[in-house]
Design a protein that fits this description.
Blueprint lengths: L1 H20 L8 E8 L12 E4 L4 E7 L5 E7 L11 E7 L2 E4 L12 E3 L2 E6 L8 E9 L2 E11 L5 E5 L2 E5 L6 E3 L7 E5 L5 E7 L6 E3 L5 E2 L4 E4 L1 E4 L6 E13 L6 H6 L3 E11 L5 E5 L2 E5 L2 E4 L4 E9 L2 E10 L2 E7 L2 E2 L4 E5 L5 E8 L6 E10 L2 E11 L15 H52 L1
Parallel strand pairs: 2-10, 12-21, 24-32
Antiparallel strand pairs: 1-3, 3-8, 4-5, 4-9, 5-6, 7-8, 9-10, 11-14, 13-19, 14-18, 15-17, 15-20, 16-19, 20-21, 22-23, 23-25, 25-30, 26-29, 26-31, 27-28, 27-30, 31-32
Length: 457
């Protein structure tokens, strides 16, 4: 019992002495930890671990409960015999100085910051590392205060482009700015990858006349950007302007190393822009220096008349022949006068030549055609407008025939005649009977008188 008591006393003394010579903990603890790419929300995997995208700068915010003179952050992948950029990184803050303690290039000290007890590291790992689960440790004044698993993944630039076929219209000889937003034509960039994206848009021609007017010059992870196009015109003659646009996108905040540049490449696509200087609803056709605007198709009721207009610009004279197929050309008017074909017109690039053609759709249920033959500068071209003619109206129904009045009258007259004849015949018969009875009576009287006479004698 005494031996046990002595042993406990010696142990207590030893512990007390050792506590004097071994420094106690600093008492610093971490209040919060956060990791995210610049301007992005933190990414986490299915198990709730922070995701770090290799080759991209990240901001790591470490918030302590008290100030620390030195804060160290270390990341490593598995067990290794040799430290290299594939498996190990260490970053330091010490007395106002920031540094990449291992390689010197995977931190941007100018973008690191300390505000009170908040220490913000601007760091990253190379684009080519061991992808998977890494261990991260934070130390303050030499004491470990935080550790966690970090999932390091390969960067993917997942830009999806959706583009309208930009078709912009303006009237001839009119200076204006055409906005694709008026017809809801736009570019749409969707970020389906794990890096924030920058993008730029270039044009094959007329760059000084084109502006993009949408919002957002950065496409965040899981986000999108929409851009409209504005095009400025002068007082131009009718024409078609074709422009090819190109959009390029790439990962923002790439760490400038050769392996990162090789692994994280940009993407891009092209899209068309067509600017039509002409009348709405008309097709603009250009050939051999001649520009003609016609309607390609129209609809007309059967039996109706309709007007077609054609517009020409050029430099010189042109001869026109206009005819109808399954429709009738009723009238052609040029310069306010009726013309017979063929006829000659004067063309200029400073104004439009306007010709009016009045047609009659006199064949039902057909696609009629108005054909324009144009001879200009020794070249002959043929154009046409298809005219859809409606059906002929159905014939008016024939009303059911009324009973023949003549027959009815004849029937009535005949019936009346028969009745009259019957009555007359009956009266005549009766009269004859009366007459016959009278004759008999007279004859009998005479005979009786004679008989009496003979007896008397």
């Amino acid at each position: 019992m005494r031996t046990l008591s002595t042993s406990l006393s010696l142990a207590l003394i030893a512990f007390t002495v050792s506590s004097i010579f071994i420094p106690s903990g600093s008492g610093i603890s971490i209040q919060s930890f956060d990791m995210h790419m610049v301007g992005e929300n933190p990414l986490r995997d299915s198990q709730g671990r922070y995701r770090m995208v290799a080759g991209i700068w990240h901001r790591v915010d470490i918030y302590l409960d008290v100030n620390a003179d030195a804060v160290e952050m270390e990341m490593q992948y598995g067990d290794f015999t040799e430290k290299n950029t594939m498996n190990h990184y260490r970053w330091l803050y010490s007395d106002g100085n920031w540094s990449d303690a291992e390689y010197g290039i995977y931190m941007e000290p100018d973008r690191c910051d300390r505000t009170g007890t908040l220490y913000s590291f601007f760091v990253g790992v190379d684009g080519k590392v061991n992808y998977g689960v890494w261990n991260l440790t934070v130390r303050a004044d030499g004491e470990e205060i935080y550790s966690s698993e970090i999932y390091v993944e390969k960067a993917t630039v997942g830009a999806d482009f959706h583009s309208a076929d930009f078709v912009l219209w303006t009237e001839p000889f009119t200076a204006e700015t055409i906005d694709s937003a008026d017809n809801m034509q736009y570019l749409r960039i969707v970020n389906g990858g794990n890096t924030p994206l920058y993008y730029n848009i270039t044009f094959s021609a007329f760059s000084d006349r084109i502006n993009i007017t949408g919002k957002a010059d950065v496409v965040h992870v899981g986000g999108e950007a929409i851009q409209y196009i504005r095009f400025r015109t002068d007082e131009w003659s009718p024409r078609v302007i074709e422009i090819k646009g190109r959009i390029n996108a790439g990962a923002l905040y790439r760490i400038p190393t050769a392996s990162t540049a090789t692994l994280i490449t940009g993407v891009g696509t092209t899209f068309p822009i067509a600017v039509y200087v002409g009348h709405s609803g008309y097709e603009i056709l250009e050939k051999d220096g001649l520009t003609i605007q016609i309607k390609r198709r129209m609809s007309v009721d059967y039996g109706a008349e309709s007007e077609l207009k054609i517009f020409l610009t050029g430099n010189g004279t042109a001869t026109l022949d206009i005819r109808g197929d399954n429709c009738t050309i009723e009238e052609i008017v040029y310069n306010g006068e009726r013309r017979n074909t063929p006829f000659t017109v004067l063309l200029s690039r400073e104004f439009e030549t306007n010709i009016t053609v009045r047609i009659k759709a006199d064949v039902p249920d057909v696609v009629a055609r108005v054909i324009y033959s144009v001879e200009y500068e020794g070249n002959k071209s043929t154009y046409s407008t298809d005219v859809e003619v409606g059906s002929a109206p159905p014939p008016e129904p024939v009303p059911p025939s009324a009973p023949d009045k003549t027959l009815a009258v004849a029937f009535i007259i005949g019936a009346a005649a028969l009745a009259t004849a019957y009555i007359l015949l009956t009266h005549k018969k009766a009269a004859d009977e009366v007459k016959n009875r009278g004759k008999k009576d007279v004859s009998g009287k005479k005979s009786g008188r004679k008989r009496r006479g003979r007896g008397d004698r």
